[in-house]
Design brief:
By secondary structure, this protein is mainly alpha-helical. It contains 4 helices and no strands.
């Protein structure tokens, strides 16, 4: 498993690169200044990290209450889909009005942009994590030697 230092490096790199990429994309799409788009990206990044913590806490408590355990190993594919949809839906409630207001867009255009970025982040997360694993590989655990 990765240690705390490595997890912090992972989060900071993930968010930092995402902020730069999304700032450039948003600035180009809505023809605004990169600084304006970057400030929004930073705010959304911080909101997302805070929501991630809070949502997972609520979700785990719900699992304990309804299933008696929050152990990740007992989560079905359906439950994982529910978890992902719940996270995105909850974040949309917060981010949609902010994006619409910040960029002076209608709710429909902000929703289209938000859905587009959700799709972007699926691909970005896949590519980033694969690249991170290549750049900062974990050492394979040593196999237990047979007893003599």
């Amino acid at each position: 498993m990765r240690n705390t230092h490595d997890r912090i490096r992972h989060t900071l790199l993930f968010e930092g690169i995402a902020i730069v990429l999304t700032s450039l994309i948003v600035a180009a799409l809505v023809e605004t200044e990169v600084v304006t788009a970057g400030a929004l990206a930073l705010i959304l990044s911080l909101l997302s990290m805070g929501w991630n913590y809070q949502y997972n806490l609520i979700f785990d408590r719900w699992l304990v209450k309804t299933r008696g355990s929050a152990v990740p190993g007992v989560r079905s594919v359906g439950l994982r889909v529910l978890h992902a949809l719940g996270f995105e839906g909850g974040f949309l409630v917060v981010s949609l009005p902010l994006v619409a207001w910040w960029l002076d867009l209608g709710l429909w255009h902000a929703l289209v942009m938000d859905v587009g970025f959700s799709i972007f982040f699926i691909g970005y997360g896949f590519v980033f994590n694969w690249g991170y694993d290549l750049a900062f590989p974990l050492e394979a655990p040593e196999a237990a030697s047979p007893a003599a």
